[in-house]
Amino acid sequence: DIQMTQSPSSLSASVGDTVTIACRASQTIDNYLNWFQQKPGQAPKLLIYAASSLHSGVPSRFSGSGSGTDFTLTISSLQPEDFATFYCQQSYSPPHSFGQGTRLEIK
Amino acid sequence: EVQLVESGGDLVQPGGSLRLSCAASGFIFRNYAMSWVRQAPGKGLEWVSNISGSGTRTYYADSVKGRFALSRDTSKNTVYLDMDSLRAEDTALYYCARLSGASGYDEVPDYWGRGTLVIVSS
Question: For the segment B31-42, what is each residue's pLDDT rounded down to a tens digit?
C-alpha cells in the first residue's frame, strides 16, 4: 500500500503570507495527487486534482505542483477564510490513502 | 447541483451491524463511481471503499475488508455501505463522495456529503 506523508503537521501564518505544504508518497504515483481543505464542522472540499489542476470554483491563490513522489500545495496571499486543515490524497491505486493532515493557523 | 445526503448513522454495540445510505442527485448516477471516507473524532481522513459506476467493482481498505460491503441501486440513485462486526475503532463520521469518473480505481472525490455519525460502544 502507498503511504502519504505531509509536512509540516501544523503551521502558523498571517493574512497576506504565502505558505507551502509538502506531501510525499512512499512510491511513485505519477500525478495522481489531490488536495483537500477541511474547516471545523464541515466536509472536506476538493481544491486541486491531478497534482496541479484547480477544481471548479477554487480561487487561483491555491496552486499545486509535483510529480512522482513529491508534491506541494502553495497558498498565496492568505485570506482569513483559508485557515483550515489540508489533506493530500493519492488516487493512483486503491487504497486511496490520505496524508495525516496539516493544520494552518492564524499567527 | 450535485447533492449527496448520508443517513443511517447510529449508536451500535460492538459486534453489531449497520447500513449507511447515500442518496445522490444532480448528476447521472450510473456514470460515476462513489466512495466512502471516514473520520474518527479529532482525527484525519481515512479512505474506506470505492464502487464503480456499474457496481461491478468494489475496493476496500484492509481495516474493513471482509466486514464492510459497498453496493449501489441505480433505480434509487443510492449507495449503501453495509457494516458488520463493528468495532470501537469504526467510530467515525462517514462521508460519501462522488468520484470524478466511472471506474472507481483512479478517480478523484470531487463532491462530498456532510456525513453520518457511527458510534460503536457498549
Answer: 999 999 999 999
